Amino acid sequence: VDNNYIIKEGNWIIYDDLFIPKDKKLIISAGTELKIINNSQIISKSPIIAIGLPDKKIFINSPHNDYRIGQCIIILENQSTSIFENVEFNNLRNCDKGSINSEGSLNVYKSKIKMKNIKFSNNKYGDDGLNFINSEFELDNVHLNNIYADGLDLDYSVGTIKDFSCINCLNDGIDISNTTLRLENFDADDIFDKAISVGENSIIEAKNIK
């Protein structure tokens, strides 16, 4: 509709790369399940709006079979805010195909994002579950479980995190560099390296850390 690409409620399979150009908007309706297969990627130069409901969540996942697994989601270079609410991500991986490479399964570059009531589980490969670079973020009630390498990696970014957990992360729970972060209520368990890694010109204000 006009400049909006709308994915209606239902079960959908993404079997080839999905590219959203500038000055558009990708809207994922509540109650939708997106299954990304065949090494496909979602690459958006416009905001993604995925607002589920507590009883009608949005699911973005990939099969467990390695030969069919989908790759990552990248949001890049737009100043309209992407919003994810009541969304569960499962079994994604970093992008690694042709000229497109990413560290994380969900990547935000030079953009703004808000995430609330999120579960992110079982990412495969790459360095991070979530990777934000040169971006602004607000995370509220976001829970990561069984993450390959870092849970959340923040570079040259600024934002707030409230009610966040990383359970069974194979490197750092939260890794920041050149970033300003306000963090409240963080639970880290089964972290293989550091629960919080603060490096290179970063500023952090943190409370209620377990």
Helices and strands, with pairings:
Elements: E1 4-7, E2 11-14, E3 18-20, E4 25-28, E5 33-36, E6 42-44, E7 48-51, E8 58-61, E9 73-90, E10 96-97, E11 100-101, E12 104-121, E13 128-133, E14 136-147, E15 150-155, E16 158-169, E17 174-177, E18 180-191, E19 196-199, E20 203-209
Parallel strand pairs: 1-4, 2-5, 3-6, 4-7, 5-8, 6-9, 7-9, 8-9, 9-12, 12-13, 12-14, 13-15, 14-16, 15-17, 16-18, 17-19, 18-20
Antiparallel strand pairs: 10-11
Structure summary:
The protein has 210 residues and is mostly beta strands.
Structure description:
The protein has an 18-stranded parallel beta sheet that branches. The protein starts with a strand and ends with a strand. With 210 residues, the chain is mainly β. It contains no helices and 20 strands.
Kindly provide the radius of gyration, computed on alpha-carbon positions and rounded to a whole number of angstroms: 16 Å
| Shape category | globular
Quickly count the helices: 0
Run of helices and strands: EEEEEEEEEEEEEEEEEEEE
Distance between the termini: 46 Å
Number of strands: 20
List keywords for this structure.
two-stranded antiparallel ribbon, 210 residues, mainly beta
